[in-house]
Amino acid sequence: MRSFAPSELSGLNSSDSASRSRAGFTLVELLVVIAIIGVLVGLLLPAVQAAREAARRMSCGNNLKQVSLAIHNYESAYRKLPPAWTNPGQGSGWSMQARILPFLEESALSEGVDFSRDYGASYLTIDGVQVPTSSFRVAAYQCPSDPRDDPRHGSSGPQYYKLNYGTNEGVWFVLDEATGAVGDGMFVPGRYLGFRDCLDGTSNTMALAEVKGWTPYARDAKQTGTLTMPVNTDEICALGGDFKTETGHTEWIDGRAHQASVTTVFSPNKKVLCEISGVEYDIDFTNMREGKSPPAGVRTYAAVTSRSYHPGGVHVSLLDGSVRFITDSVELELWQSMSTRAGHEVIQLP
Predict the structure, then answer these.
(1) Minimal CB count within 10 Å: which of 13, 74, 299, 326?
(2) Which of 242, 339, 330 is nearest to 292 (CA)?
(3) Of 207, 252, 12, 228, nearest to 112 (Cα)?
(4) Are 269 and 330 in contact, with CB atoms under 8 Å apart?
(5) How confident is the model over 291-303, as pLDDT tens digits?
(6) Residue 79 CB contacts under 8 Å (≥ 6 apart), including other chains
(7) In 3D, which of 215, 350, 348 has the Cα closest to residue 285?
(8) Where are the alpha helices (DSSP H) in 138-269?
(9) Residue 19 per-residue DSSP state
(10) Which neighbouring-strand residues pair with 248?
């Protein structure tokens, strides 16, 4: 057996150690690589998020287009436009969104709709169990950017489902149940209007606009007489009413303004901030819910703002079926003119 001199052993150990030291990364090198990866992720992530939002925004616009076409098909079938809200005389009334279900390829769901009865008495039988019609999700009414795509629960489980596209009910005044007078929107309570009633032109008049599900709102303030339209958002807070923290636009089946419609008191995405019990909320307002037997002299006025989850504005569809993206900076006068059916305004849309 060969023996090695101490000098030879020292040389072997030194060479082996050097080989091992060259086999991996040093701590500094590893930290540099991690830093580079972090920078690249930081640069790419906003681009990926922007691409995803662009896709969601396009999908949202397609939903509005689909709903608008359903309205046109409804008009072709019945020679009239559906009302924003209809009262069957037994309580809560039906939405325009409920009436166009068969034209959205939702014929099975429409089997659970009986317009002669309160929508709360409408059910579908699934596997021998009665399920509220109002609890079903209608895909065409959901914006993909809404982070809370969930049912609203009642005492016995899912009871309602939200929507993200509200019917145009005009600027501020909605309904006087004592006289039957209705607002200036394209869809109104209890009446079947037609294209002939759109004196401003179908390409200049809004049909639908985006809204946010789970919106806080104040209702049934029961202010009497003619209410002057608010100019500043703090005027809404002073009107009072019964406050609900997160149930606005959570019932696609309910045709009342705070659930299925939009008005143009304020421009898109305008924050209507009111402090309730020490917490600030961005709210909608309805002076009196439709069909709730208002006291004498109490009318339905509504400030139901169009809101979206898309940066910079909201999608709207016009009565001619086209879809536009309206920026938050739109002039309020133009925005309000878009919501009237016979205001005789000269409108030049962006």
Answers:
(1) 13
(2) 242
(3) 252
(4) no
(5) 998 999 999 999 9
(6) 194
(7) 215
(8) 234-239, 257-260
(9) H
(10) 215
